[in-house]
Amino acid sequence: MTGYVERDLRDNEWVVQKATMHWAYLLPDILLCFFLIGFITLPINILKRRATELAFTNKRLLGKKGVFNINELDTPLDQVSDIKIESNIIGKICGFGAIVITMGLRRTKFIAVSHPERFRKALREQADRYKAEQMYQQMAMPQPWAGYCPQNQVWAPTYPNGYYPPQQYY
C-alpha cells in the first residue's frame, strides 16, 4: 500500500527522506491499558500514528496528519522559513520530538517524530540545493529581449573578422 507522499509525486520528483513517528508516542496508552482506559485510547492513537506522514522530496515538503480531520501540507522547499524542534527530557533520551514547520504565517506541528535533528538537517541541505538549482535555472534561461538591443555588443550578431556594421545615429 502506497502512502500519501508516494501518490502525490510529480514528474522528475523523488522522496529524499521520510520522517516516522516514534513508538514512544503509544507508551502512555500502553501503560493506561492496565487501568482499562488505554483500551479505548490505544486504537485511536495507533490510527493517528499510521495516518501521519511527513517527508520531503527534491522539490517540495509534503505532510499529512489526522484520521477524520485531515490536515495536509504541500509547499515548495524555498517557502519553508523555519524548522523548530520541541523536545522534553524523555524525548531527548528516547530520540524523538515535535517538529514545527513555519511557512510565512502558517505553522504546522508534527509530534513524536523520530530523530527530528536528522530530519531538520537533511531538509535544510535539500532546501539549499533546491535554491541553488532554481538560481542556476534562472541564469541559464535564454533572454530573447537582449539580442534586440543594438547597444548591447555582447548579444549583437558577430561578423567575420570582427566587423560590426556602423551604427546610425539620428
What are the defining features of this structure?
32% helix, PH-domain like, 26% strand, alpha+beta, 170 residues, elongated, three-stranded antiparallel beta sheet
Short description:
The chain is an alpha+beta fold and 170 residues long. The radius of gyration is 26 Å and the shape is elongated.
Q: Can you walk me through this structure?
A:
- The structure is a single chain.
- The protein has 170 residues and is of the alpha+beta class.
- The protein has a single domain, classed as PH-domain like (Roll), CATH 2.30.29.
- It has 5 helices and 7 strands; from the N terminus they run αβααββββαββα.
- Strand 2 (53-57) and strand 3 form a beta hairpin.
- The chain is elongated.
- The chain starts with a helix and ends in a 30-residue tail after the last helix.
Q: Number of domains in the coordinates?
A: 1
* Amino- and carboxy-terminal Cα gap: 73 Å
**What Rg do the Cα atoms give?**
26 Å
Which spans have pLDDT < 50 for at least 5 consecutive residues? none
**Largest sheet, order of strands side by side?**
1-2-3-4
